[in-house]
Each structure stands twice: as C-alpha cells, then as structure tokens.
Amino acid sequence: MPVYSEKVMEHFMNPRNVGEIEDADGIGEEGNPVCGDLMTFYIKVKDNRLSDIKFKTFGCGAAIAVSSMVSEMAMGKTLEEARKITPALVAKELEGLPKNKYHCSNLGAQALNKAIDDYLRKQGVKVKTKRRRKDEQE
Ligand code: FES
After folding, report:
1. What is the pLDDT of residue 127?
2. Nearest alpha carbon to residue 44 among 13, 88, 77
C-alpha cells in the first residue's frame, strides 16, 4: 500500500467541493483507462473567474485528494490562472505523491482544463480538443 502524505490523507478524508453543479457553465471529464478511475469537474464562471467548482471522482484515494486540491487551488482564479495549475503543482501542494500514484495528479488538471474548454466552446471560442501538458507525470 502506498504511503501518503498527511495532506493527501486529510484531503482524502475531508474532500472539499464534492458534488455536482446542475447548471454548470462547463463540464470536464477525464479518466485513466489503465486504472479505470474517472473524474468530472463542474465549473461556474463569472467575470472570467471560476466562481464555483465541484467534482465527482470515482477513484483511488490519491485521485480524490487531487480533485479536492485542484478545486481549492482553482477557486476564484481567472481561467488563465486556472490553466496554469499543473499536475506537478498539485502534487507539490499535496506534499508529494507516491511514484506509482503520479498519474492520479494528471487527471485533476486535465479534467479542470476540459471543463474550461467546454465553457469556452459554449461561448463560441474555438479550442483544441486534447492537449498533452508538458509536465504530465507518468
Ligand atoms: Fe488511477 Fe489513482 S490509481 S487515478
């Protein structure tokens, strides 16, 4: 069993912003076909800022902690600032992740980015479907 930091355990035991936003402005879903974990982010956007974020995650403890941390890090940020939340930053805020759990940190940033993409598309902005981030972790 992987050894988790206290921060990961704390977010896993008390995840922030769990749930769904019924009238979400953007929805982003990301999964990992290897482990089967699935993450969905719901966002509300006001004046180009993330005014509300909720998530639903079916996954391991690290994936839940990552979702919770991403939602906290992104809340209130502008869309551009939220896009700068990388898997490495999330892992750092969680005081590290076990090596075999690095991939869990990719899901959070990707799901949030997809929710932002979804929002922008609904605004008529052209966005590329899938972007791999430079710092994605194996
Ligand atoms: Fe796959 Fe955590 S084990 S997201």
Report:
1. 87
2. 77
> What's the pLDDT band for 102 if we cut at 50, 70, 90?
confident
- Of the candidates 17, 14, 20, 38, which has an alpha carbon nearest to the alpha carbon of residue 110? 38
- Tell me which DSSP letter residue 16 carries: S
- Model confidence at 134, pLDDT cuts 50, 70, 90, reads low
Atom of ligand 1 nearest to the CA of 39: 4
Question: How many whole angstroms separate alpha carbon 40 and alpha carbon 107?
Answer: 9
- What sign has the CA pseudo-torsion 115, 17, 63, 70? positive
Q: State the pLDDT at residue 2.
A: 73
Task: Judge whether 43 and 66 are in contact, CB under 8 Å.
Answer: no
Q: Which residues are catalytic?
A: 35, 104
| 123 CA → ligand 1 middle, Å | 32
Structural domains of the chain ordered from first start: 6-122 (3.90.1010.10)
